[in-house]
C-alpha cells in the first residue's frame, strides 16, 4: 500500500503533542484532506474505550502485562480501522505514539522486556512500522518538571510513576533512536516550542518530498 505513516514519540513531558498540534496547523493548508491525525491508545471508538480503562486513575492495581496487552489490543483496532485504510487511500498519517511507546514504557519502564513487548506488538501490527518517527528528546528532569506543571485534570494514571521508571523509559528511547537511525529522527525538545515545531515541519517536508515525489514507498 502507498501513503506515509509518521509517528511522534518521547517521554511524558517532551512536548510532542503540543508540537504535533502546531505541525498540523502548519501542514494542513498544503495537505488538506490528505492529512490524517490520530493518537494511541485511541484513534477509533473501540480503541478509545480501551484507552479509558488504561488511563483511569481508579485502576492502580492493573497488572503490567494486562496493561501491555490492552495497549496492543487498542493498537490493533486503531491500525485496522484508522491507519491502514488511510494508507490505502494514499494519505499521510500523523500519529501520537505507536509501538516504540510500548517498547519504552511497558518493555523498559514496567520491566517486561523490550524484546518481549516488541514481539507482542509484531503480532498486533503484523509487523507494520512507521515510515518515519520523530523522537522528542528531553532529559528526564525536564520531562518531570513539565508533568508537575500540568493541571491535575490533565494528568492520568500513567503520569503517576517514580523517577526511575521515567529514566528506564528515556534510556529505552535513546536505544531505539540509536538502533534505528534510518527511521527515527531525534529532535532536541528542550528548545522553544516554535523552534521544535519548525524543525519537525522541515523534517516531515523533506521526508514527504523524497518519498512522495518518487511515487511513494511501500508500507
UniProtKB/TrEMBL annotation:
Pfam families: Thymidylate_kin. Keywords: ATP-binding, Kinase, Nucleotide biosynthesis, Nucleotide-binding, Transferase. This is Thymidylate kinase. It comes from Fructilactobacillus myrtifloralis. NCBIfam families: DTMP_kinase (TIGR00041). One of its GO terms (molecular function) is dTMP kinase activity. Signal peptide: none annotated. HAMAP family: Thymidylate_kinase (MF_00165). Belongs to the thymidylate kinase family. PANTHER family: THYMIDYLATE KINASE (PTHR10344), UMP-CMP KINASE 2, MITOCHONDRIAL (PTHR10344:SF4). Its EC number is 2.7.4.9. ATP binds at residues 10-17. InterPro entries: P-loop_NTPase, Thymidylate_kin-like_dom, Thymidylate_kin_CS, Thymidylate_kinase. Phosphorylation of dTMP to form dTDP in both de novo and salvage pathways of dTTP synthesis. Residues 8-199 form the Thymidylate kinase-like domain.
Amino acid at each position: 500500500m502507498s501513503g506515509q505513516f509518521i509517528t511522534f514519540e518521547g517521554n511524558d513531558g517532551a512536548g510532542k503533542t503540543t508540537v504535533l498540534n502546531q505541525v498540523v496547523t502548519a501542514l494542513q493548508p498544503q495537505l488538506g484532506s490528505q492529512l490524517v491525525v490520530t493518537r494511541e491508545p485511541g484513534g477509533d471508538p473501540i480503541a478509545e474505550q480501551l484507552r479509558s480503562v488504561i488511563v483511569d486513575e481508579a485502576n492502580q492495581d492493573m497488572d503490567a502485562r494486562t496493561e501491555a496487552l490492552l495497549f496492543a489490543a487498542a493498537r490493533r483496532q486503531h491500525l485496522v480501522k484508522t491507519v491502514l485504510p488511510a494508507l490505502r487511500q494514499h494519505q499521510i498519517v500523523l500519529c501520537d505514539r505507536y509501538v516504540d511507546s510500548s517498547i519504552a514504557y511497558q518493555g523498559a519502564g514496567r520491566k517486561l522486556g523490550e524484546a518481549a513487548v516488541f514481539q507482542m506488538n509484531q503480532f498486533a501490527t503484523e509487523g507494520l512500522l512507521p515510515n518515519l518517527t520523530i523522537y522528542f528528546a528531553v532529559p528526564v528532569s525536564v520531562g518531570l518538571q513539565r508533568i508537575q506543571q500540568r493541571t491535575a485534570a490533565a494528568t492520568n494514571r500513567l503520569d503517576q510513576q517514580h523517577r526511575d521508571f521515567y529514566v528506564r523509559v528515556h534510556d529505552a528511547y535513546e536505544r531505539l533512536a540509536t538502533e534505528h537511525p534510518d527511521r527515527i529522527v531525534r529532535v532536541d525538545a528542550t528548545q522553544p516550542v516554535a523552534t521544535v515545531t519548525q524543525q519537525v515541519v522541515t523534517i516531515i517536508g523533506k521526508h514527504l518530498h523524497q518519498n512522495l515525489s518518487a511515487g511513494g514507498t511501500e508500507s
